[in-house]
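pipeline: protein-struct stage 2 | run 1193 | ADAMTS-like protein 1
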Amino acid sequence: HASCHDASSKDVNPALCPRNELSTRQQCNTQPCRQWIFGQWSGCSVTCGNGVESRTAQCIDNSGKVLPDDMCDAQQKIIQKPCERLACPQYKYTEWSSCSVTCNDGWKRRRVSCVDHRNQDVSLSICKKFGEPIPPSHQPCNLGSCPFWRTKTWGPCSNSCGSGYKQRIVECVYREQVVDASICSEADKPKDREDCHLAECTYWLTSNWTPCSVTCGDGLQSRNVSCVKGNKVVEFYECDLKTRPKSDKQCIRDQCIDNNNNLQFKGSDYSSEQISRAQWVFGPWSDCSKSCGNGTQRRIVICRDTVNGNNLETVYCRNLESVPSERNCMLKPCASWKIRNWAPCSVTCGVDIYQERVVTCEAIDPSQAHLVNENTCDPTQYPVSRRKCDLKPCPSIKLITYGTWLTGDWTPCSAPCGGGWRRRNVTCNTGRCKEAEKPNVFDRCNKNACKTGVWQYSPWT
């Protein structure tokens, strides 16, 4: 901008100033211009997925002289840009199947395939070319031990002699818990009942009574009493002495009368008056003859004249109800501890495993079995009923061990800005690693937006 003024610096009409002295322009920026000269863009750095295109750049002046790069505007030097191709082939796999077995060791499987950008199946080798190992199509699985039948010890025979049956508990065990029997195999179930055969039963056998030993007065009848086992006669103590039949009994015939019309007994004469005064008198019972089992108690029984107190022969009391002088007694049954065979150990290996056997208190005389309980036997003599099984330790279960994923270095980002990709190798050091823990092979990078170049001007100097 130019204005015309006088010597006092006041503005005056421009016509008063010489026209040839007016100058509103002057030369500036006389130094040569500098700029970037770019080469052609290269092809994309990848054949699939995201990559970059590159080109060369040189800083020159307007005369074509090559200058150092720092003499040109660095923001204008764009030598890379992102490029995108069709999606790379990638592995595709289904969910794992259920375990091939319901117990013990088995396998889980899945289908592994390689698909292209159209999601069409292609050869697995195509995916493998991109540096990714083929994911496993099967892996081991273990659902624990199988259910099995466990047996308890056999109970006693249902009968004390002869034939009977015995029972035991058979239960299905799975993971150390008793479960419903349907869980175990019915075909493998052990018997819970079987026949048992003990010694033959015994019984008393009697013959017919003999005729009375007298024709008048008091006499005796007798018969044979035998203890029979099977078809053989055995000792009395093998039968129940408490139920032993009598082998003799009294028999009474008509009274014997002499010529004087007096009653006659065993060659002596007794008056009817004395018989009417006779009465049985008896003392206390003695202690039982045995401390256990069948014994005998006795007492004194006397026929006595109730008028003068004299003892009479027993014949005077014959018309009275008889008073026994002897009776059977039993303080308690004779019993002892009986043991059964040891039950088999429930497993074939392990520690702190025990086996048991049945210990019962049983009467020595089988007929008295219903009278016996455990208090009848001596508790200090109780046999051992539980002991530790002599087993070897179970072999340790081989646990499945997994390897470790190893990662390589990331490749350079495929784009300097606007979001690119980088890749790294991921391998398993043992060939068996957990797929769910596999690190990423691809990763986004340089996500910041790309800047477009804009000329900016400084004020005129």
